[in-house]
Every structure is written in C-alpha cells, then in structure tokens.
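ok so I'm stuck.
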Amino acid sequence: MPRSTQRRRPLAAAAILTTSAVALAGCSLFGAPADQGPGATGEVTLAIVPDPSGASALYRSQMDRCEAENPGLTVTIVENPADQQLNAIELMFQQGDGPDVFQAQGQAALDRFYTKGWVASLSDYADEEFTSRFPEGSITDPERSGLYRDGDLVSVPLTWGGWSYVSLLVYNKDVLAASGFDEAPETWGELDEIARKVTADNGGSVYGFAPTAGTASAINWMLGTGAPATLSTNGVNLQTGEADVSNPNFVALVDMLTAMQADGVLEPGWESWDGTKAFQEMAAGRLAMYSTAPWHVAQIRALNPDLNLGIVAPPVPDGGREAYNAQLSSFAPHWSMSSETENPDAAWQVLECLASEEFQGEYYDTFGTLTAIESAWRDKLTDDQSTIVSIAEDTVRFAPNPALLSEGGAAIFNALAGQTGLNPVAAAANAIIQNQPFGPIAADLDAQIDAAIDAVPGASRDDITFADWDPLSDWDGE
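replied:
not stuck anymore, here's the structure
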C-alpha cells in the first residue's frame, strides 16, 4: 500500500477575511446515504494543529491504522501552528487547495468556515451506529449539541463536553504551605492574599499568581463564578440581552489583577506568554497558582511528576458564587469536512477514524484529555482526571446558547465576534498592563457593544435575552 505523507505547511501572506456570508444550504450535500463502511478509497488531506507535544506522531500512527483498515485510502497530514491555523486553512481554501478534513475547533472557528460555504453536511453519513458512540442524545439535538448548522450535522467532536467548559485552579501545595496556607483560596480575596504573601516570602524566585497567558485568559476561567454566561466572550448578559462588561464582578476581578500587577505580585513577563508557558512555569516551581483549562494538568505532570500539585475549582467572588461555568453546547466542534472535497466518501472515512473509540482512546492515553466517546476513558481515570470530572460535575451548568437557538442570535454573536475591538477580555488585559481602572473602559465598551447589537439586521434583543434563566441552575430549554 502506498505510504501517505506528512508535511508542514508554512503560512503564506495573511488572508483577508471577507465580510460576505454565504450560508451552506440546509439540504444534505450528498443526497442519498453513502457507503459508510470500511472500503472508501482515495486521497484525503487532513489539516491539524500539532499540539499538544506528540500530536504529530499520534495522528500519523492513527491515520496509518485507518489506511490499513481501508486499503486504497491515503491520508496526507498538513500541520499548521495553533496561532496560524485558521488563517492558513482559510488561505488554502481561497487558493483552491482546501483540505478535505480540517480542524475548526470551537463555535467561532466553525462559523468562520461555515458562513463561507466551505463546510459540508455530514447528516447522510452519521447513522445510528455512529451517533450511538456518544452519550444518548448528546450529538443528535441541534439546539444542544453545538455541531449543527441550519439543521445539518457539520462537525465531529474530540473532547468530552465538560472538558471544554470546566475551569480549574492549579497550585503548588508545598509553596503555599511554606507561606502558611494549608488550603487553596476559595474566594478572589483569598487568592489575592495568598499570592501576595507567597511573592513576598520568595523574593522573586516564586510568584504567587499569573493571568495564565498574555491574553489574560485567567479572566475567562474565573469570571464564570461571578457573572452570567458569555460575559467574558462578547460582553452580553444573557439574562438582560444587554452589554454588561461593567458588571461589578467583572470590574472587581480586573481591578484586583491590575493591583496585583502594579505591586509586582504577578509573575513578570506573563504579558507575552502563549498557551504553554504557564504550565512550564508551574512545573519549574516558579509559579504558585494559576487558573486554567484542564489539559494543562497532564502537561504539568509530564514535566514534573514529583510536583505536589493541587487541583481545585476556581475561587468565587468575595460576596459568594453568583454563577456556574456555563456549558453552551454538548460538545465543542472539532473536525469538519470540506464542501469542496472531490472524495467525500473517503473524507468521511477519515472522520469515522477520528471519531472511533480506538482513536479517542489513544488520544486519552497519550494526553490525558477526556474525549467525546466516554467509553474510551470512563474505566481508566487517573486521580487527576477523576478530580477534573468531579469539579466539572460540581461547577458546570447548561446555559442558553443564542447562536444555536435562532438565526438572530447567531447573527448577533457572529457580528460581535467579528469585531476584535469589542473583545472584553482583550480590553481587560490592556487595562491590567497599563494600570488603568477598568470601570470607565467597561462602560465605554458596553456602549459600543450595545450599538453593534442594534446594528445587526434581522435580529432583536429577544434573540439574546433569557430573563427566566438562573446562572446558578441548568437551563431547561424553555
């Protein structure tokens, strides 16, 4: 059998994003159901991000397995760095060389390609056997799954639903104990107190806290305890349908981090950190605490297995919890098929392999990531992973997702996502770095976001307002 290749594609000149939105037709792309069993043949290009470390080898070995099970199938893997991936894939499509299967991770990434007509429907391929691999109903409900657009299945998931929405506080137990703290902080005020004490006690060799990355992504992980869903994403309060960046808890959190920055409590240089630096600093013993996504835990363990690592839920506002982290869909989108592929049956076969228990089990074993197919990991959880699952079950609740519930909601959210100047966390990061009070900045941003919402044609505030939803409870869909 011919050996498929793996190549790394450099990013060419930055692609210019078009503002036109060409929605893919709601009808199935392929018509009659296609052959869904082994035997699909042809050449398929798979575009991935080679992260975490070791992903390149995993994908190659798993695609070798897929080829062996489907003689005549050849898979070429194209790699793009995480920070260049979406632009690179878009440029490939613009040049008429789009990948057959590609990684579009998250709702915004999927929408970016779907609205340009580059994403194929998978509905005729995803039969009962395929959908049964996932928890009952999780992949078949267009209003909950997060994988549908215009009634068609257009994405296949990789990670467990809670994995994309749970947030953690990781900390060095020995460092905290040396400064007199036997427990992790439970409130924002306690976090501030402990971080200051640790920094002072260690004279510059260990710092108490960091905002996780230069984007101040700690705000995303921490604000979910104090404000309704999507506030850190696009500034919208789903209870009122109005911009609420000036929410008192949002302002209090940012102002606390700003004061910590001004007083030298935050680890210097965090402003230029990428998504990997925080776990490297934690593993090296230079950082005492930070708030993060769960995949960092396995990375810390791999770098320093002997670290006395603590894993807890993020602290809550000093006045008490006002929200739970909001799960906006059953799954985050991950892989999609190109609508321009010349070999859709073979492309689906690759998606079948990516959504197999074999692949997702190997992904779990390699990276410690809880995958969408729960049978791949439920019986072999480590202590760390059991802790993460428990935290997710305790601190994550379903919330309404306007982008999945109405065309108007999707239009508003897409419009806000398309205006980078309206990103609340980016504005917060700048305030922290520039030592500026966040209140006036937040109020100005609220006015801009509200104006942008009102300018979206064919949409209304009703599309993004859920007055009866309680951020401390699961949304029941009403």
